[in-house]
Structure formats: C-alpha cells, structure tokens
Design brief:
The chain is an alpha/beta fold. It is built from eleven helices and 13 strands.
Length: 299
C-alpha cells in the first residue's frame, strides 16, 4: 500500500501567512502541519509516501522531511503545476503508485482518536481486496462539504453501504461530510483518468468516488464519538487545531503526531536512530519527548 499527501494549492485563505511559506509548514501548536497527515499514513502502516506540492514549496518540504529515513519510511516528491482538483493527485502520482493500492490524505487535514490506526488498517485490507473506502464525519453545515449518504450493509453488519456522494449539495441527504482521507484499490490512477473536469474546472474527488460507487466498490468508515477531524485551512480552524493539540498534549502528557515515535514503536527505526533525532531537536519539548520515549518514561 502506498500513500500520497496532497500538499499543494496556493493557500490564499491563509494570506498573508502563506505568502512566504507553504501552508503545510505552518505550525499547528508545536509541529509543522504536515507532521499530522504524515503521522496518519504511518499509523496505517504505510511506508512509501509521495508528497505532492508546488514548485516553490517542494524544496522547503524536502528540507524538513528529507527522504524519510529518520522515520523508517521512503518519502518522494512531485510537483503540482496548478491546483486542478484532488483527483489530480493520481495523475501526478501515476508512476509512483504503479499497480498498487493507494491512500490519499490532504495536507491540511488532522485526525485524532483512539483506534484510528486499526480503522485505517482495515481500510488498507479492503483496498487490497478491491474496495475503496471514504471516511465520514458528522457536521452541522453539510452544504459546505462533499456529503455521503449511506445505510447498513445487509451482507456485512459492521460495514456501511454507500448510497450516494454529492459535492456541496443544496439539500444534503445526510450530515456526514467526506473528509480528506481516502483508500483506493489498485487501478485508481487509471480510473482517475476517466474523471472529467467539473463546472469549476477541477478533477473532483467526488467524481472519482462516484465511479467506485457505480462499480459497487465504495464503502464508508464513520468517525464517530471519540474522534476528531479538523481542516486547518483557514485562520480560525488553524487556531482551533493548535488549541486542540495543545489541550490534548497537556492533558495526556504525550505528543500528538510525532513521526519518530510512531516509527520507533512500529520497530521501523532502532533506538540509536531515535536518540539521534532526540539529540537533533535538543532541549525543545519535542526533543525532550523523544528522549523520554528512548528512556522508557513514555510507555
């Protein structure tokens, strides 16, 4: 299973902050934003990841994440010349994905909740068996989002069967927004090539999901109580995300989305590699936390 982080776009909703740097490099409390989607893919046991960004921002992201060796993974990069819709990620990443299943996560989406890794690993297994999975999250203003309508799958009691997907409908058929995390079977790049530009000239991810729905190969995983999803693409949501992470870290005494810690706990890196990372970050809270993991204080 491969993974793509779509970290492109112009970030105009965050001007003037994003006039000088990538949106995905802005801080969400004490870490760059991109650490959060990167950690999410790692929790799904995905170790080959493509970061798609602009020509200007790719060198900055590469300077931060490098080739991923410090996380025990492989990170490569691709340029998005212009932001032409989420499904474009599979056209840009076609050579990277090859003939494998692939997950896509948006670079400004933050996910948190006990059991999230287990849910995503099930989605990986479904993708390996030919089933695409989208994720749904209850919202009060569904007309602002892509929306999924679903019912219980009579053949699979623990699964939900998708009835329809709509992009920002005037009369939403449910309150469940389709969030920026998708798992697709092999062949997704070829299917994405069938997506036609929408009225606003973009290759909509909803159109790609509709193709899977027509094949009866689309499932939805709901993020219910105990889960948090945030789109940190506006000033207010960026501040909300920072406050949420600060609150969770102070309450639990552990870092949210530390890629080195995830890699160490999954045995993707050894103790010496973690020590080198901890020493690199020095006396910062991030470095101190990694040293606590090394010493065994963090269980």
């Amino acid at each position: 299973m491969k993974g793509i982080i779509l970290a492109g776009g112009s970030g105009t909703r965050l001007y003037p902050l994003t006039m000088v740097t990538s949106k995905q490099l802005l801080p969400v409390y004490n870490k760059p934003m991109i650490f959060y989607p990167l950690s999410t893919l790692m929790l799904a046991h995905i170790r080959e990841i493509l970061v798609i960004s602009t020509k200007e921002d790719t060198p900055r992201l590469k300077n931060l994440l490098k080739d991923g060796h410090q996380y025990g993974i492989e990170i490569s990069y691709a340029i998005q010349e212009s932001p032409d819709g989420l499904a474009q990620a599979f056209l840009i990443g076609k050579d990277f994905v090859g003939d494998e299943p692939c997950a896509l996560i948006l670079g400004d989406n933050i996910f948190y909740g006990n059991g999230l890794g287990r849910k995503m690993q099930e989605s990986v297994e479904d993708a390996q068996n030919g089933i695409a999975t989208i994720y749904g999250y209850y919202v009060n203003d569904p007309e602002r989002f892509g929306i999924v309508e679903f019912t219980k799958d009579p053949d699979k009691p623990n699964k939900n069967k998708v009835i329809s997907v709509e992009e920002k409908p005037r009369e939403p058929k449910s309150n469940y927004a389709i969030v920026g995390l998708y798992f697709y079977p092999k062949g997704v790049c070829e299917l994405a090539e069938q997506v036609k530009p929408s009225a606003r000239g973009e290759l909509e991810i909803t159109s790609l999901n509709e193709l899977y729905l027509q094949q009866n190969n689309l499932a939805v995983e709901l993020l219910g109580r105990g889960y948090t999803w945030m789109d940190a693409g506006t000033m207010d949501s960026l501040m909300d995300a920072s406050e949420f992470v600060r609150m969770m870290e102070e309450r639990q005494g552990m870092l949210v989305s530390a890629p080195e810690e995830i890699a160490y706990r999954y045995h993707w890196i050894d103790r010496q590699t973690l020590i080198r990372s901890a020493e690199f970050f020095g006396k910062s809270p991030y470095g101190q936390h990694l040293m606590d993991v090394v010493s065994g204080k963090m269980i």
